[in-house]
Design a protein that fits this description.
The chain has two domains: 2-38; 49-164, Glutaredoxin (3-Layer(aba) Sandwich). It is 47% helix and 18% strand. It contains seven helices and six strands. It starts with a helix and ends in a 20-residue tail after the last helix.
Length: 184
C-alpha cells in the first residue's frame, strides 16, 4: 500500500512532464510551419551616418536620416506605426540610403576623416532641437530639407516620392532613371 502511494504521484509527475514536453515540441513545430515572411519581418535597413554617406555616393542614392532618441515617444510611434508599414519599408530600402542617428549618443563617426559624435552631428551640423526630425540629402551629402515631428505614413510617402523623383530640382528635365541633367 505504501508503495502504491509513492507510485501514484510519481506516475502523475511523469505524465505531466510528458504532456508539457509534448506541448513545447508542438510549439516548435508550429513555428517551423509559419510562412517565412512572418518569421523574418522585413524592416528598414538603417545604418550609421558615416557608412550611409559612403553608400549613397557609391550608389548615387538620396539619403534619408531619422534623427531620434531612445526617450522620444513620437520617435517610437513613428517606428511602430509608420516605419513598419510594408509600402514605407519598400520605398525607403529601394530608393534611399536609410540612416538612423541617435541624438543623445556619444558614438563617434568618421565622416571623410572628420570625427564627430552622433550628438554633435545632430545639434551642430543639422541644428536638430526636437525629435523626431528627418533630413533628406543628395547622394553627395548636400542637404535638401527637413521634416519635423510625427507624420502619418501617407505624408511620409508624399515626401519620399517628391525627393525620389527629384521634384525639388526644377532644372532637371529627365526621368529619375536616367540621372542626367539638361544641357549635358
Amino acid at each position: 500500500m505504501r508503495q502504491a502511494r509513492l507510485l501514484i504521484p510519481l506516475l502523475l509527475f511523469v505524465a505531466l512532464f510528458a504532456l508539457t514536453a509534448g506541448s513545447k515540441e508542438n510549439k516548435k513545430t508550429e513555428q517551423k510551419q509559419l510562412p517565412q515572411k512572418e518569421i523574418n519581418k522585413k524592416e528598414i535597413e538603417w545604418m550609421a551616418y558615416d557608412i550611409g554617406l559612403e553608400k549613397a555616393k557609391a550608389e548615387e542614392k538620396h539619403v534619408f536620416i531619422d534623427f531620434t532618441t531612445k526617450w522620444c515617444g513620437w520617435c517610437n510611434k513613428m517606428d511602430k506605426d509608420v516605419f513598419s508599414k510594408p509600402e514605407v519599408i519598400d520605398m525607403v530600402n529601394t530608393n534611399f540610403v536609410p540612416v538612423k542617428v541617435n541624438g543623445d549618443s556619444k558614438r563617434e563617426l568618421n565622416v571623410d576623416g572628420y570625427k564627430i559624435t552622433e550628438k554633435n552631428l545632430t545639434r551642430r551640423e543639422f541644428g536638430v532641437r526636437g525629435f523626431p526630425s528627418y533630413w533628406f540629402l543628395k547622394s553627395d551629402g548636400t542637404k535638401l530639407g527637413v521634416i519635423r515631428g510625427y507624420k502619418k505614413a501617407g505624408d511620409m510617402m508624399q515626401a519620399f516620392e517628391f525627393v525620389k523623383d527629384y521634384k525639388y530640382d526644377s532644372t532637371r528635365t529627365d526621368t529619375p532613371d536616367k540621372k542626367e541633367k539638361s544641357g549635358n
